[in-house]
Amino acid sequence: MLNNDRLLVQILLLALLGAALWVMAPFISALLWGAILAYASWPLMRLVTRLCGGRETLAASLLTTLWLILVALPLIWLGFNLADHVRDATAFIRDVQVDGLPDPPAWLGSIPFLGERLVGYWNTIDQQGAALLTTVKPYLGQVGNWLLARSAQIGSGIVELILSLVFVFFFYRDGPRLAAFVLRLLERLIGERGQHYLDLVAGTVQRVVNGVIGTAAAQGLLALIGFLIAGVPGALVLGLVTFMLSLIPMGPPLAWIPATAWLAWKGDYGMAIFLGIWGTFIISGVDNVLKPYLISRGGDLPLVIVLLGVFGGLLAFGFIGLFIGPTLLAVGYSLLVDWSNHDTTAKQP
Question: pLDDT at position 165, please?
Answer without folding.
Answer: 83
